Automatic annotation (TrEMBL):
Belongs to the KAE1 / TsaD family. It is an enzyme of class 2 (transferase). The gene is tsaD. This is tRNA N6-adenosine threonylcarbamoyltransferase. Required for the formation of a threonylcarbamoyl group on adenosine at position 37 (t(6)A37) in tRNAs that read codons beginning with adenine. Is involved in the transfer of the threonylcarbamoyl moiety of threonylcarbamoyl-AMP (TC-AMP) to the N6 group of A37, together with TsaE and TsaB. TsaD likely plays a direct catalytic role in this reaction. It comes from Candidatus Kaiserbacteria bacterium CG10_big_fil_rev_8_21_14_0_10_45_20.
Length: 386
């Protein structure tokens, strides 16, 4: 099966063409074409993602990136086409409608079996842009289109083992599976009892950990997105061998639940930063380390509690913060010491952020599980997977 996958939940526009084989126990995937454009530099001046700007960038880039992905996959046949009058009915933005019309008018229907598009959670204007585009090209080409949950993509991304430069295969997975989802918008534990049967184990009461990384980076005068910069500065401080002298709280660490809170930690950094007239580079490194250490300790303690409560046989970590080296190290150490029987899996570095590969993979696995498609796709900006 060949799948065209589209991801526009936030500030990455991603389009992938996958070829998928096998069943739920041995599925394998080859990336035939992959195109991604990050808008991070455009949102940096706002210190976060500006929804209307994200929408406009998605509208501008989707036709071009789809062309690139299809070309890389060897599925692009350019030829003047006569369009169906109904394929663009749902598109309300006239400029977007015109760009899709131009795209469809010059490209012959590719040999694609299924179109998959992220339908949430995320920024609704961004999500609807991807959905409208996917449904328009699906209607014109008479290819079935399915909506895929973004967080489900992050869960599955950790189960993808690199088999070759452009290929992945599903890990042999024992259930129940506990997934820790840590990103700019989410921090939660989700238990997958069997394929696509979920239970929410714990979640943040306020800020997501990735959001806290970004906000603390802004307090320290570091660029957006903040996570990579906090990691770099924190490691520089560790490398000096100097002890951590900044005391920050570990919110809810003694609480007997698997829930999180990061708002108070961010506020504590704010107050301590205000005590300094100015921050030197050494100060920034010390604050970055203190914050990262606190976030790490909370995540590790809550993970230990969640694993004890669920008796999970597989533990996966997904989302943008799963790329953090210190958090990865600490979680691996936790499982080695306390849960050696539990398999731990992280996504390949290229799959930690938002990407269309994971959306296509979930679409294929969902198709194997239940090939019946819903009648329509709706964006759900904040609805949880569970």
């Amino acid at each position: 099966m060949k799948i065209l996958a589209i991801e526009t939940s936030c500030d990455e526009t991603a389009v992938t063409v996958l070829e998928a084989h096998g069943d739920l126990t041995n599925a394998s995937f080859t990336v035939l074409g992959n195109a991604l454009y990050s808008q991070a530099s455009k949102h940096a001046e706002y210190g976060g993602v500006y929804p209307s700007l994200a929408k406009r960038e998605h509208q501008k880039n989707l036709p071009a990136l789809t062309t690139l992905a299809l070309k890389e996959a060897g599925l692009l046949v350019e030829e003047t086409q006569t369009l169906s009058p109904d394929s663009l009915l749902k598109i309300r933005d006239e400029e977007f409608k015109h760009s899709i019309k131009e795209f469809l008018a010059t490209i012959q229907k590719p040999a694609i079996d299924l179109i998959a598009v992220t339908n949430g959670p995320g920024l609704e204007p961004a999500l609807w842009t991807g959905i409208n585009f996917a449904e328009a090209i699906g209607a014109e080409w008479n290819i079935p289109t399915v909506g895929i949950d973004h967080m489900e993509g992050h869960i599955v991304s950790a189960l993808l083992e690199r088999s070759e430069n452009t290929g992945y295969k599903i890990l042999n997975t024992d259930f129940p599976l506990l997934a820790l989802l840590i990103s700019g918008g989410h921090t939660e534990f989700v238990l997958m009892k069997e394929w696509f049967v979920y239970e929410l184990v714990g979640k943040t009461k306020d800020d997501a950990v990735g959001e806290a990384f970004d906000k603390v980076a802004r307090l320290l005068g570091l660029p957006y997105p903040g996570g990579p910069h906090i990691q770099t500065y924190a490691q520089k401080h560790r490398d000096t061998g100097v002890a951590d002298t900044i005391s920050l709280p570990r919110p809810m660490i003694q609480d007997d639940t698997c829930d999180f809170s990061f708002s108070g930690l961010k506020t504590s950094v704010l107050y301590k930063v205000k005590e300094n007239a100015s921050l030197s580079e050494d100060d920034k490194e010390a604050f970055a380390r203190a914050f990262e250490d606190s976030a790490r300790d909370v995540i590790v303690t809550k993970t230990k509690r969640a694993l004890e409560k669920t008796n999970a046989q597989t533990f996966t970590v997904g989302g943008g913060v799963s790329a953090n080296k210190e958090i990865r190290r600490a979680l691996e150490e936790l499982l080695d010491e306390h849960f050696p029987q539990t398999q731990i899996a992280f996504p390949h570095h290229s799959l930690t952020g938002d990407n269309a590969v994971m959306i296509g993979v979930v679409a294929y696995l969902r198709h194997l599980h239940n090939p019946q498609l819903p009648d329509s796709i709706h964006a759900h900006g904040s609805q949880s997977l569970v």
